[in-house]
UniProtKB/TrEMBL annotation:
Residues 42-55 have a biased composition (Pro residues). This is GIPC PDZ domain containing family, member 3. It comes from the Eukaryota. SUPFAM superfamilies: PDZ domain-like (SSF50156). Belongs to the GIPC family. Residues 1-56 are annotated as: Disordered. Residues 133-200 form the PDZ domain. It comes from Sinocyclocheilus rhinocerous. InterPro entries: GH2_GIPC (IPR055349), GIPC1-3_GH1 (IPR056814), GIPC1/2/3 (IPR017379), PDZ (IPR001478), PDZ_sf (IPR036034). It holds the Pfam family GIPC1_GH2.
Length: 307
């Protein structure tokens, strides 16, 4: 250490009347020993600082919102890096990810990923689904849209005001990514830039929006048609399956539970049920133990349409 070398080579003289430390008194040696008179000991080496403990690696669990096995995500410090990590784990392109929600696979803007993620939060990544174009005619200054962006170049619809111009166009939905206005790409624009462009569209003149909706796990109209056997058994089975979804996957979703129950109708054994479920919801990668528990939870009355 430089400090120790300096003390040894250039000892500071003691001032008159200054008491010496016990170590300094011992170092003078016995009386008459001229060689040891006035010698100043070297300072003991300073203890080495302990090497800093490595910071614990924060690991988060994630799924694709339309269905996938659970992945482990770590080593990101911003949204773009998070999307890159998700893309790497699930073998998709980072440009396919529209936005993420926490603890819900639904397009729920109350669960939208913000600036912070808790250790217990489960990340659901919503990826590109179908593209659609709609024609809009402004009948008033405001379209009734609230726009936000994902921090990585994609602006999307966060809210739609009831009774507004956009609300009357039923194909436009919350969560839709606004990809272009009048064929002009707005990818890379911040939400306030997109809002300004929409505000500047003249009243009474049609313009087009090219939208990309988040990919859906299944046809939502299909589950609505599930009313072919007594609701008493159906509702019990759906509730049991919903409980199992929470137990195995940490989510609750009556729509998804209904689709699972429907897949089990008229199936004679767990293998047939697993094959049917895989054809509808194969992207979820349900574990075998979950499938067997669901098969048992649905009961014979539901599986065979008995009252």
């Amino acid at each position: 250490m430089q400090e120790s070398e300096k003390t040894t080579s250039n000892p500071e003289p003691m001032q008159n009347g200054e008491a010496m430390s016990p170590d300094a008194q011992d170092s003078r040696g016995p009386p008459g020993d001229e060689k040891n008179q006035g010698a100043v000991p070297s300072a003991p080496p300073l203890p080495q600082e302990p090497s800093p403990c490595p910071r614990p690696k924060l690991v988060f669990h994630a799924q694709l919102a339309h269905g996938s096995p659970t992945g482990r995500i770590h080593g990101f410090t911003n949204v773009r890096e998070l999307y890159a990590k998700i893309a790497e784990v699930f073998d998709v392109s980072a440009s396919e990810i529209l936005f993420c929600t926490l603890n819900s696979h639904k397009v729920d803007m109350q669960k939208l990923l913000g600036g912070q993620i808790g250790l217990e939060d489960f990340i659901f990544a919503h990826v590109r689904g179908e593209t659609k174009e709609v024609e809009v005619i402004k009948t008033e200054d405001a379209l009734g849209l609230t726009i936000t962006d994902n921090g990585a170049g994609y602006a999307f619809i966060k809210r739609i005001k009831e009774g507004s111009t956009i609300d009357r166009i039923k194909t436009v939905c919350v969560g839709d990514h606004i990809e272009a206005i009048n064929d002009q790409s707005i990818v890379g624009c911040r939400h306030y830039e997109v809002a300004k462009m929409l505000k500047e569209q003249p009243r009474g003149t049609p313009f087009t929006l090219r939208l990309v909706e988040p990919k859906k796990a299944f046809d939502r109209q299909k589950y609505c048609k599930l009313r072919n056997y007594p609701s008493e058994f159906e509702d019990k089975a759906i509730k049991k399956v919903d409980d199992l979804l929470e137990s195995y996957m940490g989510i609750r979703d009556l729509e998804l539970a209904t689709t699972i129950v429907e897949a089990g109708r008229n199936k004679k054994n767990p293998d047939d049920f697993a094959e049917a479920l895989d054809s509808v919801l194969g992207d979820f990668g349900f574990p075998d133990v979950f499938l067997f528990d669901v098969w048992g939870a649905m009961g014979g009355d539901v599986k065979n349409r008995r009252i």
